[in-house]
Amino acid sequence: MNATRNLEGEILMTDENIADFLGDEKNYLMVDMGQIDEEDMPFMIIDKDTGKMYDMRNDRHVERLTDVATTRFGTQQSPAVAGFGGGDEKEPRKSAKGTAWSGWWREKKKSNQEYLWAAEVGDLGKLKKHLSKDEMKDMVADLNAKGLDQWSALHFACDSGHLQIVQELLKQPKIDVEALSTMDRTPLH
Question: Are residues 68 and 148 in the same domain?
Answer without folding.
Answer: no
